[in-house]
Amino acid sequence: MAILESMKTLFIISLLISGLYLVILTIMTVIHRPRPNRSRGNSSGKNFRAYPPVSILKPIKGVDDDLEANLESFYQLDYPVYEILYAVDDWQDKAVEIIRKVSEHHPRIRTKILATGHHPTDNPKIHKLDFMEKESFGRLLWAVDANVRVEPDTLRRLADEYLEGGARLVFSPVLGTGSRSLASLMENTSLNFFTSGNVIALWKLFSQPVVVGKSMLIDRVALRTFGGFSYIKDYLAEDYILSKSFVDSGFKVSTNFIWVTNINQRTTFRGFYKRMARWARLRYQLHRPAYLLEILLNPVIMALAGLVIFGKEFWPLALAAVSGKIFLEYFNFLAVNRPDRRQLVNHLMFPLMVLWKDIILFSVYLAPFFSTWVDWRGGRIKVGRNSLIYHPGRLEKLAYEEV
């Protein structure tokens, strides 16, 4: 009986810690939530020549949700000099036709499409970025995913952090939106609350730059001091390794909380699980102690476990924990995800969505303990510590070096 009471006390303390941290995440995202477009154009009075040329690097594979509108947003940027480079595996990619259609409407903006092939053992995203970097002219490189949409002033505001704050890598929180299915609402909510919430909280509270690779403005000269993009081609968590390389080299990594929008409209449950499981396996390989503590951010599962262990006397606490989690995520949804809150169905589904999402995320949480393989763009990659990509040749080399 004493052991059971001790366990119950531990459960209560864990739920309180979980609730406190989730409140902090909510506060951080609400304070730094996406702001309306503040494009100032030429009226800002700033000399255009103060802004260095930028090369926008977009790795592409397949047709993402609303790709045409996503690409169009990059041709509407309020920025003096920039080019856009795209990299696809081959010319048969259906995205090529869309890229050409959009770029033809903006002949004054230099656009280049590269077919880079697919390297079987390199990080596929870094493989493309490395090709594009060698073909670009900008002092600044803006690596942005294909499913990202931006405001006209996004690049100018990111460049301000580079010019005024001295940062050599500027990263962005990510707003997931466009939900048209229950699974896409799950993924967008998780991205806005868990991912961007932690990015903001860790940066504001601990000055810890946790970079999300959806949008990274990079100083080319600083990048080349440690070998360019090819330096991190053997790692799958390219954003983490890149930011660590910058910090270790003495360069400032920063954010001025300029959000970019991740368009996610029709994700399936299978797609949601696979994407979350990939990210979970990467986090596990990057920092296992921190990963083990992530279970505290899922009070729904903790409450269900408490009901199983302690029975009906745990009902009030379990109900409070679950209700609190739903409330905080819903508050975050209302404050952050303005486009999706216009849809009545998202409000009606929200409580059930949170419960279902957190149960799925618990199975995702367990995934790294059973497999080190991740699904990536139609292929499977085996990862090790620090997200090092394993392949037979590298395994043989490592075995030889250990002997």
Characterization of this structure:
The structure is a single chain. The protein has 403 residues and is of the alpha/beta class. It has two domains: 2-30 and 276-366, no CATH class; 38-173 and 212-267, Spore Coat Polysaccharide Biosynthesis Protein SpsA, Chain A (Alpha-Beta Complex), CATH 3.90.550.10. It is 51% helix and 13% strand. It is built from 14 helices and 13 strands. It has a seven-stranded mixed β-sheet with strand order 3-2-1-4-8-6-9, sandwiched between helices. It has a three-stranded mixed β-sheet with strand order 5-10-7. A hairpin with a 5-residue loop joins strand 12 and strand 13. It is globular, with a radius of gyration of 22 Å.
Question: Which regions are unreliable across 5 or more consecutive residues at pLDDT < 50?
Answer: 40-49, 395-403
* Strand line-up of the largest beta sheet: 3-2-1-4-8-6-9
Q: Which CATH-level-2 architecture of the largest domain?
A: Alpha-Beta Complex
Radius of gyration: 22 Å
Main CATH class of the largest domain: Alpha Beta
Q: Judging from the principal axes of the Cα atoms, what is the shape?
A: globular
Q: What is the strand tally?
A: 13
Residue-averaged pLDDT, rounded?
90
Q: Assign a percent range to the helix content.
A: 40-55%
Q: Count of DSSP helices?
A: 14
How far apart are the first and last residues' alpha carbons, in Å? 53 Å
What's the main sheet like? 7 strands, mixed
Q: What would you give as the CATH superfamily of the largest domain?
A: Spore Coat Polysaccharide Biosynthesis Protein SpsA, Chain A
Beta content: 5-15%
Order of helices and strands: HEHEHEHEEHEEHEHHEEHHHHHEEEH
Q: Domain count, please report it.
A: 2
Under CATH, the topology of the largest domain is which?
Spore Coat Polysaccharide Biosynthesis Protein SpsA, Chain A
Which quaternary structure do these chains form? Answer: single chain
Q: Determine the structural class based on helices, strands and strand pairing.
A: alpha/beta
